[in-house]
């Protein structure tokens, strides 16, 4: 298949902007007259340090990260943050609060339980994770060392529309599947992290934004590489950073600017997701999985209610160039991930194909 014939709805790694891939391709063998690929450069070289520092600044500008917060380029995926957070922000015997609104928040809570007492201040299992709690539904502890939540739940397709008021307890947030898709008041957070492979770059880079005032209190057992303070001291170069991914992130941030930055992206993503949700709300065949108020603009989940029919639709869509619509293996159904780089036509085409399928099945 040609690229022009395909829409890729994968949940991550996922679609990247075409202009980014074109620039990367044109610079692949010889980056701006250096005679080298970015992949081949020393991370200590002047030319690479310029890429690194410019990308960091572009990220700070794009999200409005205040000077109180450090930006780190790490590895280990979102999953390593599940360990780094309790290792850096809790002591043995401490109690921490977790809102379990989906698969990855649940894994993060399980991991934290290895180190401290975890209070599950909300557990969405009873609603099959279709619901995001209101402030009143959160049973928050004012003495908790931190409060943790996942702002966009990739698997069930739900998202938080507000930042909870924790009365001073600092907030750690997994924004892996929605970072850079809307403005964020970063000052409200102690820490934000996001794996790059959805809205930012290829897999292998994890962005961390952390309030410097919270760092330097990690447990004695914390591996040096997993200490936020050490990573701050070394400007993310305690070891070799994921150099090429950082370069791609820089290109993605340039592209984001042409889309009106995070404010432009917020409007765009909302319109794009509405195209699909509006159809789902009327469809007699497909049913959306998430509650209306909890719906994610990034991951749209739906099903027919019949596993065989779901599989038939995924195959039908694939034949028409609509790839990776199968839902996560833990929940089944379908999932269309509409990340930043997904053009509006990706939503339009999806609805077109769903209508065609529905017409022949009801
Ligand atoms: C919201 C969220 N958090 C964490 C993860 C885990 O990330 P990683 O595979 O980079 O460890 C994922 C993976 O898809 C995710 O969607």
Would you kindly provide a written description of the structure presented here, covering whatever features stand out?
The structure is a single chain. With 362 residues, this protein is α/β, with parallel strands linked by helices. The chain has two domains: 3-14 and 260-359, Aspartate Aminotransferase, domain 1 (Alpha-Beta Complex), CATH 3.90.1150; 23-257, Aspartate Aminotransferase, domain 2, CATH 3.40.640.10. The chain is 34% helix and 16% strand. The protein is built from nine helices and 14 strands. The protein has helices spanning 18-26, 46-63, 77-89, 103-112, 228-233, 243-258, 261-282, 307-319, 344-359, and strands spanning 7-8, 69-74, 95-100, 117-123, 147-150, 152-153, 158-159, 171-174, 191-195, 206-211, 287-288, 299-303, 322-323, 334-337. Strands 2-10-9-8-5-3-4 form a seven-stranded mixed sheet, sandwiched between helices. It has a three-stranded antiparallel sheet with strand order 11-12-14. The longest helix has 22 residues, at 261-282. Bound molecules: pyridoxal-5'-phosphate. The site of pyridoxal-5'-phosphate has 11 residues, from helix 3.
Q: Summed up, what is this model?
A:
The protein starts with 6 loop residues before the first strand and ends with a helix.
CATH superfamily of the largest domain: Type I PLP-dependent aspartate aminotransferase-like (Major domain)
CATH fold naming of the largest domain: Aspartate Aminotransferase, domain 2
Bound molecules: pyridoxal-5'-phosphate
Strand arrangement within the widest β-sheet reads 2-10-9-8-5-3-4
**Uncertain spans, ≥5 residues at pLDDT below 50?**
none
Q: Give the assembly state of these chains.
A: single chain
Instruction: Report the CATH architecture of the largest domain.
Output: 3-Layer(aba) Sandwich
Portion of residues in beta strands equals 15-25%
Report the principal-axis shape: globular
Number of domains: 2
- Average predicted confidence as pLDDT: 97
Distance between the termini: 30 Å
Helix content: 25-40%
Order of helices and strands: EHHEHEHEEEEEEEHHHEEHEEH
Tally of helical runs: 9
Q: What is the CATH top level name of the largest domain?
A: Alpha Beta
SS-derived structural category: alpha/beta
Q: Could you give a short account of the major beta sheet? A: 7 strands, mixed
């Amino acid at each position: 298949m040609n690229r022009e014939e395909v829409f890729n709805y994968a949940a991550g790694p996922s679609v990247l902007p075409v202009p980014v891939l074109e620039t990367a391709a044109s610079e692949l063998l010889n980056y701006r007259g250096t005679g080298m690929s970015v992949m081949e450069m020393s991370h200590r070289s002047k030319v690479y340090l310029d890429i690194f520092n410019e990308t960091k600044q572009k990220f700070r500008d794009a999200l409005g990260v205040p000077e109180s917060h450090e930006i780190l380029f790490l590895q280990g995926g979102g999953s390593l943050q599940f360990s780094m957070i309790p290792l850096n922000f809790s002591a043995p015997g401490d109690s921490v609060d977790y809102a379990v609104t989906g698969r990855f928040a649940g894994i993060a809570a399980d991991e934290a339980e290895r180190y401290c007492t975890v209070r599950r201040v909300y557990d969405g299992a009873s609603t099959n994770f279709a619901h995001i709690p209101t402030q009143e539904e959160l049973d928050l502890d004012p003495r908790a060392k931190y409060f943790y939540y996942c702002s966009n739940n990739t698997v069930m397709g739900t998202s938080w529309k507000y930042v909870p008021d924790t009365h001073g307890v600092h907030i750690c947030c997994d924004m892996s599947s929605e970072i850079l898709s809307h403005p964020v008041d970063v000052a409200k957070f102690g820490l934000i992290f996001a794996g790059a492979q959805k809205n930012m770059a290829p897999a292998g880079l994890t962005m961390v934004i952390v309030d410097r005032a919270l760092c330097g209190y990690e447990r004695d057992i914390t591996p040096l590489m997993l200490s936020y303070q050490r990573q701050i001291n070394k400007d993310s170069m305690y070891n070799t950073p994921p150099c090429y991914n950082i370069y791609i992130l820089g290109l993605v941030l340039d592209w984001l600017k042409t889309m009106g930055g995070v404010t432009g992206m917020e409007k765009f993503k909302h319109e794009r997701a509405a195209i699909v949700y509006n159809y789902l709300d009327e469809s007699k065949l497909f049913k959306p999985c998430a509650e209306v108020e909890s719906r994610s603009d990034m991951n749209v989940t739906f099903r027919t209610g019949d596993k065989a029919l779901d599989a038939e639709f995924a195959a039908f869509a694939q034949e028409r160039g609509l790839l990776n619509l199968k839902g996560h293996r833990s929940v089944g159904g379908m999932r269309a991930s509409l990340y930043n780089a997904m053009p509006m036509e990706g939503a339009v085409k999806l609805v077109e194909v769903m209508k065609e399928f529905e017409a022949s099945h009801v």
